[in-house]
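tokens incoming
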């Protein structure tokens, strides 16, 4: 079956006999030329083994065909852990610090302990599926989905690099991820919360969060150059984040989807910002040389420093507990705004743009139940109207 001496795809088969523990074993070995070493120019050959001559011949023929059509790849003995190390160093160079930290944590805590020792080219879908199943026994479906997303990306790069023929993670079945039920404030609870926050040091920023739907990092990372008080518009292009390490510092990072957006808040919110500007000017005069606000932040402490998210959160929790909502999170203010906006008549596209969601479909997925409730309420109102007309007749 040789194509000629030294030809790529050429090969030979021979019978081998070995003696083990006084017993004779027979097997077949085939060698096939798969190309030349680009450095030395020498032929590269690969050996195949089998119990019969026919089995070895079929393996050699498959390899020869792959050489002919250009799809042959040398076997790689690299482990999954080794590839993940290469992938992190070479391909995770242009992502946000917090995203990188999340990737590294998932790889370190889950993927390497579960699959790291496996040989990359021998990794099968069922290996990954069993790994996901084990993770699902102790972690949430959302976490399993996140781990899958990272592993799938890493393996897809191996496919692009020609190391893998297909992505074994693509064939896996993931646990159903149920979005946790949101618990926004209703109109009466919003009124009660505003009353509970009166006089609180963080009344102004929390009130702005409630009536704009800003994420906590976006609120605390807002700078004056992004606020146009005359036009009544605010540009959201960054967020305040903290490095994920001991003693990590706060810094301004791009928004979640890295896309700036412009919102037009209610005049009530614009007035809050006007008062904050005047209040901050007073603080700067009092602080004198101690004032330090290099980023020109809107929400600062008495000496110009950024607000600490945890401190703001504790003040909200205290106010929320006083109105019977100790479960309330800062993010729930965002949900409360979205639900109130939809009920007030804003269309989904407008709500999407204001919240900074990537797609309107995502907004519908989160808040679609509100529109369904509104449809039912509309039907009920129409029914009452019809019944009234019938009685009149």
């Amino acid at each position: 079956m040789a194509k000629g001496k030294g030809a790529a795809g050429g090969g030979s088969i021979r019978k081998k006999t070995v003696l083990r523990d006084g017993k004779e074993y027979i097997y077949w070995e085939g060698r096939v030329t798969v190309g030349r070493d680009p450095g030395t120019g020498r032929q590269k050959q690969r050996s195949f083994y089998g119990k019969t001559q026919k089995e070895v011949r079929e393996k050699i023929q498959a390899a020869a065909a792959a050489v002919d059509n250009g799809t042959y790849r040398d076997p790689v003995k690299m482990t999954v852990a080794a590839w993940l190390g290469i992938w992190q160093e070479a391909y995770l160079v242009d992502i946000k610090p917090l995203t990188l930290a999340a990737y590294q944590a998932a790889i370190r805590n889950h993927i390497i302990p579960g699959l790291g020792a496996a040989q990359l080219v021998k990794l099968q879908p069922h290996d990954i599926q069993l790994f996901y199943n084990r993770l699902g026994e102790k972690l949430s479906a959302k976490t399993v989905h996140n781990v899958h997303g990272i592993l799938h990306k890493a393996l897809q790069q191996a496919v692009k690099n020609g190391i893998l023929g297909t992505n074994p993670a693509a064939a896996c079945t993931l646990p159903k991820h149920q979005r946790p039920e949101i618990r926004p404030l209703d109109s009466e609870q919003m009124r009660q919360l505003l009353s509970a926050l009166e006089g609180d040091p963080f009344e102004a920023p929390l009130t702005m969060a409630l009536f704009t739907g800003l994420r906590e990092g976006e609120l605390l990372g807002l700078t004056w150059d992004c606020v146009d008080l005359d036009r009544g518009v605010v540009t959201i292009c960054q967020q305040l984040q903290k490095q994920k390490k001991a003693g990590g510092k706060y810094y301004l990072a791009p928004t979640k989807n890295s896309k700036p957006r412009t919102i037009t808040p209610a005049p009530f919110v614009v007035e809050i910002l006007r008062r904050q500007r005047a209040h901050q000017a007073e603080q700067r005069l009092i602080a004198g040389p101690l004032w330090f606000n290099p980023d020109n932040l809107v929400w600062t402490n008495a000496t110009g420093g950024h607000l600490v998210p945890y401190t703001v959160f504790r003040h909200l929790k205290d106010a929320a507990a006083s109105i019977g909502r100790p479960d309330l999170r800062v993010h729930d203010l965002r949900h409360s705004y979205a639900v109130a906006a939809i009920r007030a008549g804003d269309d989904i596209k407008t709500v999407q743009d204001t919240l900074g969601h990537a797609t309107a479909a995502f907004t519908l997925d989160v808040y679609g139940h509100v529109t369904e409730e509104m449809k039912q309420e509309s039907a009920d109102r129409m029914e009452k109207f019809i019944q009234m007309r019938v009685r009149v007749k």
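note: The chain has three domains: 11-69, 80-171, 187-368.
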